[in-house]
Design goal:
It is a single chain. The chain has 312 residues and is α/β, with parallel strands linked by helices. The chain has one domain (25-310): Rossmann fold (3-Layer(aba) Sandwich). The protein is built from eleven helices and ten strands. The chain has helices at 25-30, 53-61, 110-117, 141-146, 164-171, 188-200, 216-228, 246-259, 272-278, 296-301, 303-310; strands at residues 70-81, 84-95, 99-103, 125-130, 134-135, 149-152, 234-238, 264-268, 281-286, 289-294. It has a six-stranded mixed β-sheet with strand order 6-7-8-3-9-10, with helices on both faces. Helix 5 (164-171) runs parallel beside helix 7 (216-228) and helix 8 (246-259) packs parallel to helix 9 (272-278). The two termini are 37 Å apart. The structure holds adenosine-5'-triphosphate (ATP) and magnesium ion (MG). Magnesium ion binds at residues 110-111, 238.
Length: 312
């Protein structure tokens, strides 16, 4: 697949007071393109990729405009695979700082929704706005990362042979030189930031551990920490507690609650006990559209939801 190449010229300006970073190109380049093992989607249309990037530079550099309270709008978004509609006129609005849980049966379109928001897949139709002004369907994947949207895949994609600290260092947003930064000395503020993130993700004591020796849950936290290093405004977590122990799941619930507010957090999960613990607004997807939305109790009691999902 022809992944769009980020045009760093277009992103040279800072995003609303933050230094422009390159997100995690190094990590993404090194990681398998399809962490969840699914087939590759149709190649992303590069009309708005590297070639067109300068035209959108101002959108990225101006930061996200959440003056109306919302940070993400999906309007009538349709994504088809060989005629099958994985997303079917999906409309969804997320408020800035909220914690949104998205549930739905296998194949409902949850991961595809994240693929569409992060530019991995181009919708056939519909619009996806980040704040009032940034049309994500016109940005390349790396530009979307740089604009402040971080995404964790279903399987962790940390650098297994490197220490926890070195993984974090690589993820630091000012890591413009990629691997070269390993030779550069971090200043105390950067070290402080890494320590503070490690504290948040329960890995302070594991700072020198080789990432490959961490438990599955700890790797998931490390990946979340690597996302946080980029100071994302919007964080998308796809099945963060799958495969975790009960204790890890409990800590991940606390982490999600802690991240909301400062960040907008979208959690896709099948673990209903976990969802119930963190739920504010729950959106139920089914066949690529929103079936129901509301409190956990409201959606749990919705007969349509029981029919297609919870009652199965
Ligand atoms: N790249 C692809 N090629 C073909 N079909 C795809 C592709 N990606 C997703 N689909 C199909 O689109 C539908 C939605 O898939 P998606 O992965 O978004 O569901 P999901 O809600 O994340 O499911 P799960 O809970 O199992 O992760 C499924 O029927 C899936 O088979
Ligand atoms: Mg999925």
């Amino acid at each position: 697949m022809n992944a769009p190449v980020m045009n760093t010229e277009a992103l040279a300006e800072p995003i609303a007071g933050r230094p422009a970073g390159t997100g995690r190109p190094a990590l993404h380049d090194a990681a398998p393109r399809r962490a969840d093992g699914r087939r590759d989607a149709a190649p992303v249309d590069d009309r708005h990729g590297a070639g067109a990037a300068p035209a959108y530079g101002h959108l990225v550099s101006s930061g996200v405009d959440t003056s109306h309270g919302a940070i993400l709008y999906l309007e009538d978004v349709t994504v088809s695979f060989d005629g099958f509609r994985a997303l079917n006129a999906l409309s969804l609005t997320l408020d800035d700082g909220e914690l949104r849980c998205i549930i739905g049966p296998n194949g409902a379109g949850k991961t595809t929704m994240m693929d569409a928001v992060t530019g991995r897949i181009r919708p056939d139709s519909g619009r996806i706005f980040y704040g009032q002004t940034i049309d994500l369907t016109r940005l390349a994947e790396a530009q979307i990362v740089a604009a402040g949207i971080g995404r964790k895949f279903q399987r962790p994609t940390v650098f297994e042979t490197m220490s926890v600290f070195d993984n974090m260092e690589l993820a630091l947003e000012n890591d413009k030189r990629g691997w070269a930064s390993l030779r550069a000395k971090l200043d105390s503020a950067q070290i402080g930031r890494i320590e503070s993130i490690l504290e948040t993700i329960n890995l302070r004591a594991e700072v020198d551990r080789i990432a490959g020796t961490l438990s599955h849950g700890q790797k998931q936290w490390l990946e979340i920490g690597m996302l946080l290093a980029q100071r994302p405004r919007l964080i998308l977590l796809d099945e963060p507690v799958a495969g975790m122990t009960d204790a890890e799941t409990e800590k991940t619930a606390e982490l999600c609650l802690q991240l909301a507010g400062e960040h907008t957090v979208v959690v896709v999960e099948h673990d209903m006990e976990f969802v119930a613990k963190i739920a504010r607004t729950v959106t139920v997807l089914h066949e690529g559209s929103v079936l129901a939305e509301g409190s956990m109790d409201a959606v749990r009691g919705d007969p349509r939801v029981i029919e297609v999902y919870l009652g199965r």
